[in-house]
Each structure stands twice: as C-alpha cells, then as structure tokens.
Design brief:
Two copies of one chain form a homodimer.
Chain A (H helix, E strand, L loop, with lengths): L4 E8 L10 H16 L8 E5 L3 H5 L4 H8 L6 E6 L4 H14 L5 E8 L6 H8 L5 H7 L3 H16 L3 H15 L13 H6 L2 E3 L2 E2 L9 E9 H7 L4 E10 L14 H14 L8 E3 L5 H10 L8 H6 L10 E2 L4 H4 L4 H16 L12 E8 L4 E8 L2
Parallel strand pairs in A: 2-3, 2-4, 9-10, 9-11
Antiparallel strand pairs in A: 1-7, 1-8, 4-7, 5-6, 8-12, 11-12
Chain lengths: 386, 386
Amino acid sequence: MSVSVHVAGVGSTSFGSHPNRTLQSLAVEAARAALADSNIPMDRIGCVFVGNFVGGIMTGQELLGPIVAADLGLANVAAVKVEAACASSSAAVRIGHDLVRADAEEAVLVVGVERLTGAPREALTTAMTAAIDLGSEGHAGLTFPGFWGLVMARHMHLYGTTREQVAAVAVKNRRFGANNPLAQFQKPISLEEVIASPPVADPIRRFDCCPATDGAAAVVLTSEALARRFVSPSVRVAASVLVNGPVRVTDYREITSHDGTVNAARRAYQAAGVGPQDIDVAELHDCFSIAEIVDSEDLGFFAAGEGGPNILREATKRNSKVVINPSGGLLSKGHPTGATGCGQIYEVVMQLRGQHPNQVPQARWGLTHNGGGTAAAVTVHILQSP
Amino acid sequence: MSVSVHVAGVGSTSFGSHPNRTLQSLAVEAARAALADSNIPMDRIGCVFVGNFVGGIMTGQELLGPIVAADLGLANVAAVKVEAACASSSAAVRIGHDLVRADAEEAVLVVGVERLTGAPREALTTAMTAAIDLGSEGHAGLTFPGFWGLVMARHMHLYGTTREQVAAVAVKNRRFGANNPLAQFQKPISLEEVIASPPVADPIRRFDCCPATDGAAAVVLTSEALARRFVSPSVRVAASVLVNGPVRVTDYREITSHDGTVNAARRAYQAAGVGPQDIDVAELHDCFSIAEIVDSEDLGFFAAGEGGPNILREATKRNSKVVINPSGGLLSKGHPTGATGCGQIYEVVMQLRGQHPNQVPQARWGLTHNGGGTAAAVTVHILQSP
C-alpha cells in the first residue's frame, strides 16, 4: 500500500547571523512555526528528525533529536539526528516521506538546523571538511572551494563557459535575495563586483561563495488522509529521492557532471511522472556560482555546457521557464548547512501556495536539489501545487 | 500491510583499542561480515544507516553514510548517519525496521561505529557531554559519571541497595567478558577490587564504569520473503521501539527509574506479545554498574529496589532466568557508543542461534536495551529464535 504524502506545514527562522542562539532554540522556533502552519495536532507526530551537519564539531552539542522533541513537549516519539553533510535535512525528509508513504507514520516533523557564524575561518573550513574523506582527499588538503574551483576551471575548459556567465549566477541570486526577508544578504551586487572580489580558490572569487550562516527550517509531512482533515492548502510530495554518489574526486569520470544529481533527478522525474520541462520553480544547491550551472545541467534544465550562456541571458530569472533559486539560493539566502534542505522545501512550498515574495506566476511544479559532500549524498524533491 | 522483519545477518569487529583504524574501515569490516553472514545479495540493499555519536567531535569525520556505502561498493542507495548519542545504532535499526515492516524497503544495512580510545581523558569527557543539554546541565558541569553517581546514591538511599550489590554487577559482567573473544576486558575481577578502585563520582568507582572503546557492529534487516529465500537461520524482530524521555535531571520525577526505559519496554512487550518473564537473555545498557540494576528494574525483570539483592545472589547469571549481559555488557565488552546498539543485537542474535560463547541454554526470546543521554533516547528490541 502506498499513501500520498503531503507537506502539511513549513516554518523557518531568518537565515543569517544568530549569535547567542543555541541550535535547539533555532530548531524549536522553526519547528513550532511549521507545526502551527500545518494545523496537525501535536499528538499525531510520531517521529522527529533533526537534520544537522556539524553541530558536534562547531558547538559540542549532539542528541538534538531528543532535546528538540522534549523542548517541543513531545514525549515517547522516535527522535534522532540525521546527518548527510549539507544534505542532512532533505535526507531526513526523504526518510520521513518513506515512513508516511508506507503508512508506518501518519505525521513526521523534520527540522534542519545549523550554527556556523562567529567561528574563526580556519575552524569553519575544518568543520566543512568533515564531509570530505579525511583518510584520502582531506589528508591531501582538498576543501570545498578547492573542489568547486577544479569543477569551474574544467567547465570553462570543456565548454568555454566564461567568467561573466558564472558571475551572473551570483548577480541573479543576490537580486532575488534582496527581496526575500529571510535572506542573509539583502543587497544586489554587480557583475564587476563579483569578478573583482578577492580570489578564494582560482577561478572562484569571494562573491562566488555562499556565506557561513545560522538558521533553522522545518517541514511537517503527513498522509493525504490527515492533510484532508486538518491542512489547507497542502502541497503534494510527488517525488522524494536520496542517492549516494562518488565520495572522492578521483572516483569521478568527469567532475563537471555529478552522478548523484543525474541519478537522483532521473528517479525523481520518473516517480513524479514529469520532466525538467515541466518544472516551474527550482531551488538548487548553489554553494558556489559554478554549482548552479553544473546542477542545472545535471537536472536537465539545460544541455551540458549550456548552463552558462542561458544564465547570462537571464533565462532563469522570474517569469522565465524554469526560475532557479528565486529565494536567493545558498549564495544570497545563506547556507546553514543542516538547515538548507528544509529551507529549500520551505521556499518551494511558498511558491506553490502563491505566497512567495519573489512569486513565480502560476507555479505548479517545484523542485529542490540539495547536495552533501562532493555530491556524495544528493536529494531531489518534486512538489506539486495544491 | 505489515511485513515480518528479520535479522538476516550480523557482523562485528572486536571491541577494544583499534589505533590507526579510521571510522570507515571499522564500519566496512563489520558491514562486510554482516552482509556475508546474511547471504542477501548486495543489490537488494536500498538503505544504509550508519549509527555514530561523536565521530565529528573525536575524529573530524562526518558524511559516514555515503562514505561507508561507497566503500562497500553500493551506489544509488539512501545512506545517512543516524545519531541518538549512545543509542545511535539501535535507533537506526528502529528506522530500518519500520521501513522494512511497512514494505518501503526489502533490505536495510545498519552499521554502528565509534573511535574513542587514545584521546586525553578531558577530550573524551567533553565529547560524551555532547549528549547532555549544554545550555543547562552541561553548563552547570553535569557529566555521565556525575549523573549515574546521583542515581546510585539515590537508589541506595531509597531501597537500601548496598555497595556490594552494585559491585556484583561488574564482577558478573567481567566474568562473562573473560569468555567472549570480542570483549575489551578479558580478565575477571573481584568484589574487593571493584570496591577498592579509585573513586570517579562518589559512590561510583573506576571499575563501576565502562571503558572507552573502539569498534563497529552491523545488522542486515530484511523482509520475511527475502529471509525465506536467502537466509538461514534468521531471527525474527518481534518488537523494535525507540522513544524519547526527559533530557534533563530536573525533568525526572525520580532519577532511580527512567521513563524512557519504562515506556519503551511497555511498548515492546505489547508489540511482541510477551512479558519480562518470557525473556531468556537480555543485553542491557550497563554503562555503569548501577545502570544494570536500574534498567533491569525498569524492564520488569525485578521489582523496584530488588535489582541489587537479585544480582548479588547471582539470579542473572547463566542458567538462571533471565540471563543479563552474557556478552560482558558495556562494562566488560566495552562501549564504542555509536556501535553499542548493533553490538547488543549481534550478541542476542548469536544467543538465539545457539552460537554464543556464553550460550544461554534453549534461549528463545532475547531483548536488547540501549540508552542515549540520560535515558533521553531509549530503544528496546525483542528478538525471537529461528
């Protein structure tokens, strides 16, 4: 038996700098908002999944599942932390989705949370490297800006992608973010400013990078039966996919296309019965400007090598088909790693309900794409408007 | 629809000191052993859950789900880390169980792993404190020996439990461990040695404490249909329960009985259709000697206050009903936190197959009890012999 799964409610803190806030206080704020938004009674919640990546390394706090559940007033529920690096909370959504879909649970709460600001840059780099195999590439000194610098250089070499095309991603997403009250960066930026910003990992420059961010976002998943009884409007989860891909650069056939994204997207389109041409709005994992180009190609929005030209000629801005990252994306909304996956679902749900500050007109199909490690854990969710 | 869930295979590294081994190499060793033991073809595995508590804090490595899956040769599976402090891997078993039971997956691999030896004592204490709410009790200086010291003093005060009765737990478990080749401690210990060992958190002494341990253990869960086709002998999972309990000492009505254990046990007995009197063998969470007494009372093996006298008169040794911790328990086998839950299931499965070095004669029903934090996350599993 297979149950139709719905997003009954979403909630989010603002993304940015939240000094003096604990992980659990951010998580509880987002969770309470999602529960209130859902209208689902608390005693229907059987599972609480807290998506979090480096809470242990950055703050020393683990056991977030039981702590957040207890602080919400939930007793005798199954509460755990789920970790898949930067895809932690969307991976948790996939598990919760499967439990509801198979009728093992009628309602599941997923909260993503992270605290990253205020630490010395070296500490942050070390923490992020927890998602690289320390026995091989971590030991050799690979970092995430380093990985994406390799990808960008190779994409430029293979396809003639230009510096301007890549910078245009940051410009577009900063413009969207300036109109999203939840976003960390609220000011537009010019092509020239991106290109002139200090180098980080050549050819990547500072404004090609997402910031360190604090925040939490939450999603309540429920069965169609419970959604009909309590929820209005509810967004249907047409596909929820999590796959693993290669965990080391040396395992890639070609680093400008990521098996995890390609395979997750193929499965998600098949499950939902739609294709990339049907998607109206997508929130994808633009941890660096070049990532949006690579991911939008791997998701089938553009052919390989055509992401750059399309983005520069503004094919993915509002009122165009498909609109990518109208939240501002990780580049502008921010990247509280463990919270990002739920944050993307929050944004797409708002779009499909017609309640987004950067509303895509008549958005019917939305997609989220969230990656952990070097595309080692990839989720794709496809959501359908009420 | 509800599918009968079976433990198709188990595997384990030895528990003890494994310097120079990475988390992933230990996890892969245990996982390969479990997969080989199960006889289930690799391509049937749809999910990999890695139970781990402080891998981030102690080693800097996260993303263990995709890394372990990739190193096993698995692609396009859903692979995540699950964390619930010292109950991480048994909590992951509960999620895997629910996915198989609801027919969402036909086979799930759960691996628990931890590396704790070799670190300075302060670093280890800090890491373990990640399972205490740092904003309240952690900030006030509570540690796990401190918590269990409070519990022991209160149990002695309320019930007249004696120093000798508590020490008898360590003596019994060390004797069992001396005959378990997987155990960290291989030498028996006397009542006098326990009582004369240095104080840690009064009235707890050194030999009342489990050691720091490295190790991994793994479990393959599968549907009855797949078990019939591939597995012999297979052990049925009659109950798999995870509940959250109070996360702070100040939330307890009485610290000598733990709601998490009481509620998880009640649900598990109900699901399995058996009671504590039916259990032949139990592996329970004796992180400190006093914990075995408290837990055995909360699990219904003894009435409140009667755990101490029963253990001193050797009611729970081999050939007695019920035999508790014939593996040697956490006190003697060791406590590689994230691996402990799967390690307990490994031990009970061996008992129910009649293959254990400390075999309980005619063992038909086995129970495991695993706790995270101050009984903030508790699992109870009930297993039935083939």
